[in-house]
């Protein structure tokens, strides 16, 4: 059956993005950055695996005639991505660390450059290059290829591990920034030499490149600074501004391609000169990142995978050569960076951590290698060896970093001071965890009802996914009023509630919520709830993990427009989780004067046990509570019927697991979450094992950003 070009392209995009994200789940589980998954996905779809196992399928999915389209799309994706990398590079990263960063980064370029160039001159040129390739071009290119550090991958590793604001993290990110700028300038020079037909042409190309750089710095940059001053917010970033920026970006890439130093250099340069103040760079990243990273960049990885032929390493000698290349790459990058860091005054442990981080190659290495393969400087066999080197050096970064720089050492290296303990009796503490803004107002209203006018510690936590992480310092990031916490903080301000905003990057949201609750000594962890897309489990995923591990009472708010808490319903069967629900209901009654109804559904007339527990938790002199006993064969129906009688909030006790004690009322909890007209608060009492862990040391956790 004949398949037209568009149908084939759409199928290729579905497969590429789908396989990348599928493998990405496994990479996350192994603690690896997503780039590892995307590179592996490209190799899986190429001749190394799919072409070996099912050559017919690969031939039908990626026929030779479709490759030009994929090539052009991957190049467009790379232009956008290099523009984003330029946007991420901020000169303020070097503040206070300029000399050390320049010394470490240049050493981390010179040493691997010398090793790569030396290996190319003495050994690789004879066995793995095309005789038509000039010796100087091959040697220079191999030196540059060995010198690359993957700035974006390094940044993601630092943010995911909470190291961005640490001494090691700030030095490493500054070094990587200097490294990238230097390496790309070297690469532009090497490309100009390779493309030039004579020494005079190379000199002319270099002169034009320097002239264009001066034009961008002295003419384009001031214009962009004025534009950034006018576009001071996301609202100011109109479609016309985005269109104009993209036109200038494409023009910059086009000019550097005409000059002869590659379009990617122009994209990188244009992104680097856009001012980082005023919000223009951050707003552009938000607009363009998803399309570039999620859709177009995986095409480049698939294209690289199709060019990577592991089958070309068909001898012991070839694999030995690949191993030596990996060894030289690690020795040059890790050794050069670590020794230089030690000489600048860092401890050996810190210097080793910097060396491990600088040894990350990732995506940037693949870009350089594809340029070399396109220019004919390196052979397909050497290209495959270098791709494997990039994979290995990226894959080992996270586990080796854990060994070199364990969690307890990270805790000693935080630049942010811990929140001091308050004197006197500890006030009631609530940690409100917000993933989406719409859950915030209801949480603020509930917090107001829980604390009333008493002294309390209220924290609002927003965890940033690694893919949304920013390299900006905490003081420079968007203020809370512009984040997912904005609706909560706005409602809290109207209610007169002092709420402290917390935000940090997290690859393990459940674990970080539990650690934060322990560090803040929270009495209650309040989570928002959203209907799952696929799962039928109402309390699954992160909510389930927090319920299992937290040492504090955990409550999940199913908000249906909660504004005030005057009437509260508590369905009750006598489990410890129901006792936790009654405890919160008692606090609501005492702090905000809420009227509490305890509903006990039974299949017979017995209610003495329930009455005794209610009287224990609500002494008769308090008033404001009534026990309603209903005989009904369907507890869920009875609870739903009662919930329709004008209640503001239904408080339900539930375990993280559906244990024996919950079987009687297990169904109605699911029904209530779905069908009850009132807002629900699903409460779990801390498990004994989790509560026992509350006394453990909680200092070794990701650094928090805290704002009043």
Q: What is the CATH fold-level name of the largest domain? A: Na+/H+ antiporter like fold
Secondary structure category: alpha/beta
Tell me the domain tally.
3
Q: What ranges have pLDDT less than 50 throughout 5 or more consecutive residues?
A: 414-419, 473-481, 656-668, 689-708
CATH class of the largest domain equals Mainly Alpha
Q: Helix proportion of residues, in percent?
A: 55-70%
Tally of DSSP helical segments: 28
- Shape designation: elongated
Q: Report, as a whole number of angstroms, the end-to-end distance.
A: 64 Å
Count the beta strands. 11
- Rg result: 30 Å
Which oligomeric state applies? single chain
Q: Give the name of the CATH architecture of the largest domain.
A: Up-down Bundle
Q: Explain this structure to me?
A:
- This protein is α/β, with parallel strands linked by helices and 708 residues long.
- It folds into three domains: 92-292 and 314-412, Na+/H+ antiporter like fold; 428-552 and 686-708, 3-Layer(aba) Sandwich (Rossmann fold); 556-685, Rossmann fold, CATH 3.40.50.
- It is built from 28 helices and eleven strands.
- An eleven-stranded mixed sheet has the order 8-7-6-9-10-5-4-1-2-3-11, with helices on both faces.
- Helix 24 links the parallel strand 6 (567-571) and strand 7.
- Helix 6 (98-128) packs antiparallel against helix 14 (316-343) and helix 20 packs parallel to helix 21 (486-495).
- The protein is elongated, with a radius of gyration of 30 Å.
- The protein starts with a helix and ends with a strand.
